[in-house]
Amino acid sequence: MALRYDNRVAIVTGAGGGLGRTYALELAKRGCKVVVNDLGGDRHGSAGSTSMADKVVGEIKAAGGQAVANYNSVEEGEKIVKTAIDAFGRVDIVINNAGILRDTSFINMKEVDWDLIFKVHVKGAYSVTKAAWPYMKDQKYGRVVTTSSNAAVYGNFGQVNYSAAKHALIGFSKSLAIEGAKYNILSNTVIPTAGSRLTQTFMIDALKPEYVTPLVLYMVHENFPETGGLFEAGAQWYGHLQYYRGEGKVLENATVETIHDNWKAVSSMDKPKHVASISEQSAMLMEMLGELDAKKQAGGSSSGGSSSS
Ligand code: NAI
C-alpha cells in the first residue's frame, strides 16, 4: 500500500537544501502540499537569499506537485505558518529541520556562537511549532518531527553549543508529545546522519540524505504509531534510541563516603531498565520509599544499602 499525504499541508523548515529538500520533494510527490521554508544563508547562519527555497519549489512544481516558498528565519514561526494558511488553508505537518553550525572549541566559543545556535535550533523549533499548534489542536490532527543529532546524545568536540541545543530539542519534542496526545498531535525526534552542506562528509554516496527521507516521511504520516520517540536514520540503517538507567542502590543516610564505597553498584548498568514516563519514574521512587518505610516500621535498617528494583 502506497503511503500518501493527499489533502495534508506540511511545513518543512530549511528545505532549500540537504535533508529538508528531500523531505519536501518526497512529500510533494506523495500528494502533500508543501511550504518550502529556507532563509538561504550560509552554513554558519550568515547572509540570506530566496533562491534556495525557490529552486526546490520549482522542482516540486515541475514534477506536478504543489508547493510555496517562504524565506523567513525559523525564529519567525508565525510568518511561516501564515504562508501555509494563506496558500493552503491549514497545516498538518511541521518538520523542524533548519539548522546551522558554529563549531569551535569551548575555550574559543563566543557568546554569539552560543546564542545563534540556540536561536536557530531551539527558538526556531519553538516558534514554528508554537504558531502551528493552535491549528493542529483545533483540527485534532498534527504531526511534528524535530531534528536532533548524535552530538546531542554522545557529545562532540567543538560542538558544546550545538550538542546543548540539539539535546534541548529532545526534551522539547518529548513534552510536546505529552501535551499533544489528547489532540491527536504526535511529536517525535529524528537523529539523521547524512552527507550535506553541514557535515561536508567525504562519504557522500554512503550517506545520501535520501536514505533518511523514508523514516521522516513515515514519522509524519497519519499511520505512524509512536509519539515521544527518538529514531535514527543514516547509511540505510534505521533504529530506535531510548534512555536506559541502571538498577541503582538504596543507601540510607548516605555520605560522600557511602557513595564512594558503593560506587560500583550505584553506577552499574548490569540490569538496565527503560523508564517510559515521568509518572513511571515517580512510581518507582514511591515504591522504594514505601519499602524503606516498611523496613523502618519493622525495626530493621539497611545501612549497608539494599537494591531498588
Ligand atoms: P543543510 O545545511 O544542508 O540544510 C539546512 C538548511 O537550513 C539550509 O538550507 C539553510 O539555508 C537552512 N537554514 C539555516 N538557518 C535557517 C533559518 N534561520 N531559517 C530557515 N532556514 C534556515 O544541513 P542538513 O545536513 O540537511 O541538516 C538538516 C538538519 O539536520 C539540521 O537541523 C542539522 O542540525 C540536522 N542534522 C544533520 C546531520 C547530518 O548528518 N547531515 C546530523 C545531525 C543533525
UniProtKB/TrEMBL annotation:
Keywords: Oxidoreductase, Peroxisome. It comes from the Eukaryota. GO terms for cellular component: peroxisome. Residues 8-197 form the Ketoreductase domain. Signal peptide: none annotated. One of its GO terms (biological process) is lipid metabolic process. The keyword Oxidoreductase applies. Its main location: other. GO terms for molecular function: oxidoreductase activity. It is found in: Peroxisome. Belongs to the short-chain dehydrogenases/reductases (SDR) family. This is Ketoreductase domain-containing protein. It comes from Pristionchus entomophagus. The lineage of its organism: Eukaryota, Metazoa, Ecdysozoa, Nematoda, Chromadorea. The chain holds residues 1 to 309 of 436 of the full protein.
